[in-house]
Amino acid sequence: MSGGAVDRREFARFVVTGLLATLGNVSAVAVTRQFSSFEIALFAGIGAGILISFLTTKVFAFRSRGWRKSAGESARFLGVYLASVTIYWFVARAIGHIAVSQGITLSVAELSGVLVGAGVMMIASYLGHRFITYRTYRNHT
């Protein structure tokens, strides 16, 4: 299924890159926290996560091997990332508010919002990178 909006193999590789970026983020926070404030450690984690995510999605998930296009790809990558984070934030908040209004405890409602938001962010990010950043979608009609 490579001609559709979602290429299953590409999406599976994308999920792996997300896990690697998350691991890099958490590791950078843990290491940086040993000698710095939590806030600085969070910034280090975000930086590490974005760098790992860009490099692994470029080379592994979307198989964009040329480096001449990297400047444009990195700019589009950051745009897709910011749009996806914005979507995540709004979805997580909406789900949290809806869950609380249905009588669910605040902690469970917020966790539900985070999980649903993260899932929506993952799909939005994949589609954004497929159609905008790396342009791997090919319409075969």
Q: Helix segment count?
A: 4
Termini gap: 14 Å
Order of helices and strands: HHHH
What proportion of the residues form beta strands (DSSP E)?
under 5%
The main β sheet shows up as: none
The overall pLDDT, averaged over residues, is: 92
The total strand number stands at 0
Radius of gyration: 17 Å
Relevant terms:
141 residues; mainly alpha; 2 domains; 4 helices
Describe the structure.
It is built from four helices and no strands. With 141 residues, it is mostly helical.
What's the layout of helices and strands?
Layout: H1 8-33, H2 38-61, H3 70-101, H4 106-133
Summarize the structure.
The protein is mainly α and 141 residues long.
